[in-house]
Amino acid sequence: MIFDIAMPLTLLLVTLVAMVLSQKAGAKLKSSLEEREMTTRDVVFLAAGMAIIISIIAFVPQMAIMVFFLFSYSSLLFIISYVFSNKRWYVSIVPPATFLLLYIFLRDTTLWSDYLVNVYGLIFATLIILYIGGIFTWKTTLIFGGILTLLDIVLVLVTGAMISAFKQTESLKLPFVVYIPYIPPIIREGRWIPMGLGLGDFFFAGLLAVQTWKRLGEKTALISAIGMAVSFFAFETLLLNYGPIFFPGTLMIICGWVPVTVIGIIKARNQKR
After folding, report:
1. DSSP codes joined into one string, 80-127
2. With 0-12 CB in 10 A as exposed, 13-18 as middle and 19+ as buried, what is 34?
3. How many CB atoms lie within 10 A of CB 164?
4. Cα radius of gyration (the chain)
5. How many C-beta atoms surround the C-beta of residue 82 within 10 A?
6. What are phi and psi of 20, to 5 degrees?
7. Which of 175, 130, 118, 177 lies closest to 15 in space, CA to CA?
């Protein structure tokens, strides 16, 4: 029986870090967005936009993809740095400039491919949760979670657009996916094989956990984070032994979140009564 604990633990760690940081810094980041909150219309358009981008990305020139995502990543680093440096622009330009220089000069090296790209992937996953996750409400989180899971199932298992997009962008060596070597190790041709998980899946788990904390409290949020990691472990074990290679990460995650959340909602209602 082949199994892996590295990626489930990484998913859990990123989720827990995002939960804690969101409680400490969420208000400050939200104020930078002028206290705006996502509406139902917003999340529908966001999910539709994501589906469209993933569906057409295989037909977009790689240079255009690279420029778009480098700009997006750099903007995120600048905005977060700007907020937490008390709006000192000369401090805020250091993180994005460092990222761009490392990518330009080291992307064809082992240092970038095996290490730095994954470090930045984890950083961006956490920052996306902090920056965007705070403007969701409980209602829009439920709607967005349901739509995103259905889209992921369709794009991975039905149309295969997600797989095509992954193959199209893999050679760019941008932090779209975080690769963590399997533990226990899986060795093929003398190389320690890694497991990959997209930044969108990290964001999804973090968003669910952060909103659960706001709605149902710290304890339920912590249990839900553990539940998502355990569910991911169970699905990953099945996939490693029986296939397929590609499977919707959102489905693996939400199956661990739903039972914990339903029980938490029922307990909260009983306490009010």
Report:
1. HHHHHTTS-HHHHTHHHHHHHHHHHHHTTSHIIIIIIHHHHHHHHHHH
2. exposed
3. 16
4. 19
5. 17
6. -65, -45
7. 130
Longest dimension (CA), the chain: 62
User: Tell me, what amino acid is at 120?
Assistant: Y
The residues pairing with 179 across neighbouring beta strands, listed in sequence order, are 196
Cβ pair 262, 53 in contact under 8 A? no
Q: Give dist(CA 215, CA 207) in Å, integer.
A: 12
What is the structure's pLDDT at 18?
Answer: 92
Contacts 24+ apart (CB under 8 A), 114-121: 117/173, 117/174, 117/175, 117/179, 118/175, 118/178, 118/179, 118/180, 120/73, 120/175, 121/175, 121/176, 121/177, 121/178, 121/199
Lowest-confidence segment of 87-101, 121-135, 212-226 by average pLDDT: 121-135
- Candidates 201, 183, 208, 205; CA nearest to 247 is 201
Per residue in 148-196, pLDDT (tens digit) is 999 999 999 999 999 988 888 888 999 999 999 999 998 888 889 999 9
Q: Per-domain residue ranges for the chain?
A: 6-268
Token couple for 251: 């489905």
Is the confidence at residue 35, as pLDDT, over 70? no
Using CB atoms within 10 Å of the CB of residue 211, give its burial: 0 to 12 exposed, 13 to 18 middle, 19+ buried: buried
- Going by C-alpha positions, the residue among 210, 202, 209, 207 that lies closest to residue 260 is 209
Whose structure tokens read 């240092």?
111
